[in-house]
Each structure stands twice: as C-alpha cells, then as structure tokens.
Amino acid sequence: LMAVILSPVGILCPAFLGRYPAGPRPLSLGIGASPFRLAISALFALIVYAGVDVATGVATAAQELPDGASPPIPWAFYAVVVFVSVLHQVASNSMFVSQMAFYARVSDPAVGGTYMTLLN
Question: Which of 17-31, 39-53, 59-73, 100-114 has the lowest mean pLDDT?
Fold first, then answer.
C-alpha cells in the first residue's frame, strides 16, 4: 500500500527538483536535505516507539471485542506514517537528484551516463 502512495511522489519529485542542482554547486541541494532526512529518520524511530503504545492501547480497548476479532489501528496513526513517509521520500529524492547532477557535471560527456551507474 505504501508503494502505491509513494510512487507518484517518487516520479514527481525529481521533475520538480531537477532545476535546483543545475548550477555551479550541484551538491548544495543534497547537503541541505541531509539534516532534514536525518530528522525524518529520528521521527520514524519515534513513530515506531509510539506504534507500540498505539497497539497496546488498541489491545486494551479490544477486551470488549469477541474472541478472534482484531481491533482496528486508528486512521490518524496511518495518516502520520504516510505523511512522514512522503517527507522522507522528498528528502531522499532531493539527495539523489543532487548526487546525479554532480555525477553528470564531473563525468566525461563521451561516456554519458556510465558514471552515474558506476558512482551510484
């Protein structure tokens, strides 16, 4: 389910971000996105930690459910996970676009995109 939601973000982000690293300093976008991506990763750790509490709270509320029925996880938790995943995808694509722009800048034009494959 997450891949279906994140695929359009992964396709559209490089299209929107492609013009920013096209200057004399192509890695500046990636350097700027690195702390943001690190913060998002820390936020993911907090979400995993909170997920245990959400599941425990749901399990406590499930005591009134019939045997074998599993309680639903709140939609707000799913919304937070999707939102943070989209932010992580944007930061990740920013770093990738910046890296590929740098490789295109330093590579030999006769070789083409081979450097992008080898250096990545």
Answer: 59-73
